[in-house]
Amino acid sequence: MPEESQIVNLNKQDSEKDSTDIFPRPLSQKQKESLDECERLIQHFKKEALQHKRWFQGLKYSSIFLAATVRAYQLFFNS
């Protein structure tokens, strides 16, 4: 059976480990490269999404214009 001083010592070591985990550790080079790549991908897909959104809006307004033009043509020339 462990002595009381050993138990106290083990508890002290555990608390020291926990306190060091609270502070951020410096990132390794691989972790930094991974985070940089993630950030690059986020920006890339944000840019792609914006381009697709603009393309969709252009198609939407074009289809509205085409529908209005066809309707106006029907009203004026089929009367």
Q: What keywords describe this structure?
A:
single chain, 79 residues, mainly alpha, rod-shaped
Q: What pattern of helices and strands is seen along the backbone?
A: HH
Oligomer: single chain
Structural class: mainly alpha
Give the fraction of residues assigned to helices.
over 70%
Q: Report the average pLDDT across residues.
A: 81
List low-confidence stretches.
Answer: none
Strand content: under 5%
Largest sheet: none
Total number of helical segments? 2
Shape: rod-shaped
**End-to-end distance:** 104 Å
Count of individual beta strands: 0
Summarize the structure.
Helix content is 86%, strand content 0%. By secondary structure, it is mainly α.
Helix and strand topology:
Blueprint: H1 4-22, H2 29-77
Task: Write structural notes for this entry.
The protein has 79 residues and is an all-alpha fold. It is 86% helix and 0% strand. The model has no long low-confidence stretch (mean pLDDT 81).
